[in-house]
Amino acid sequence: MTDHLRTLFEFLRFPSVSTDSTRADAVRDCAAWLDRKLKQIGLKSEIHQTPGHPVVVARNGERLVGRPTVLIYGHYDVQPEDPIDLWHSDPFEPELRDGIIYARGATDNKGQLLAHVLGVAETIEQEGELPVNLIFLFEGEEEVGSPNLENFLREHATELACDVVAVSDTGMVGPGVPTFTYGLRGISCLEVDIVGPSADLHSGVWGGAVANPASVIARLAASLHDAQGRVAIPGFYDRVTPLEDWERQAWADLPWTDEETLQHTGASALVGEPGFSELERRWARPTAEINGIGSGYQGEGSKTIIPARAHLKISFRLVPEQDPAEILDLAEAHLRAQHHEGVTLSIERGHSGSAYLMDPHCGWGKAAQLALAETFSGTEPALIREGGSIPIVQTFKDVLGADTLLLGLALPDCQIHAPNENFPVENFEAGIRLNRSLLRCLADGFGDAAR
Ligand code: BES
Ligand code: MN
Are the beta carbons of 145 and 351 closer than 8 angstroms? Predict the structure, then answer.
């Protein structure tokens, strides 16, 4: 096993699940490991406590004029391993099978984060110094919506000031297809609780005379979409801006087919908003999704009750110009406007983050695409948006005034957030080379085109 892999395996062994409070120690230990690693490679690194999980910041000495300041962001927290039964190996004991690393966080985001770190380490080792002023910013709360990072950015805005941000936490169109992502969807979340009778009731004795919370929640859930698959919340699309012609054309030309989406998802047919292609629906159109719904008896056989309560978890994926808070206002108004006698409805808002969109043809974008092409044998990078969210990316723009270059290395079958998450060694090694090229291309571009 190579040193690179040994280091990644150490990193992957921390069960740094940010949403699980019983794992807070593992998250902390993982931050401490990262801090040690960054010091070992010659950077000045510090762990910063927050009201949640720690942030690790490292840099290469003093800022020098005449070279760009590049902030590289990543997250060392991971999603829960749940459902554990479906894993073929222990999610926190990484395994290498046929050139592929299996572990929770292998792709999202430990493998991609460490590729940044090892690329920097090799540049320092071989060249003695970096061609840029580098800031590493690694957080432990991305998977729970980065609740403390915006404050952290505002408090440390001077130290974190930079010309451009780079992040490897998105995907590639396919193996060996270098991919530059210039847009992300935003997100906002909502939970609905319906309370009916004071306890579960015998559905024969009382049924017919009192409201059933499960029926109410089903109606509310169904009211989110019309029969064509458009979101039915009044005002939801008001601020949505159209796609540009060049991007519709570029995406139509990508080596990706509807058939592949069927294969990767196991779905039997594609559904969605009329008038848009499958990629447009996922990357550039807003959606409402039910992430969880629950009420009543779920065990074996039947149990004749009227459940006392019901719950619904909803998230919206948003596109540029949609305001996450405004979308929650509209959603809440839409849900409250439906009067259901005999139950009480309460709504709790969850985390949210704005969508992100940049011009891929700007100077920094071109410099990053050059690095991608260099890394992947001269292949011209695909220019895409992604449907997933990295809420802090728009906050970088708002607080630091810097655009983010999204240089993802995840493949469509890396199973992020799912059992058997995996990362090909090939992508990990490409990521290390990519980071070396990237710093050079950004330094070369500084001062002329890339300003
Ligand atoms: N790395 C993902 C986001 C991603 C995945 C972007 C694939 C593009 C392609 C990130 O770690 C993630 O999962 N984000 C969450 C954010 C949420 C919890 C606020 C998401 O998108 O659900
Ligand atoms: Mn994730």
Answer: yes
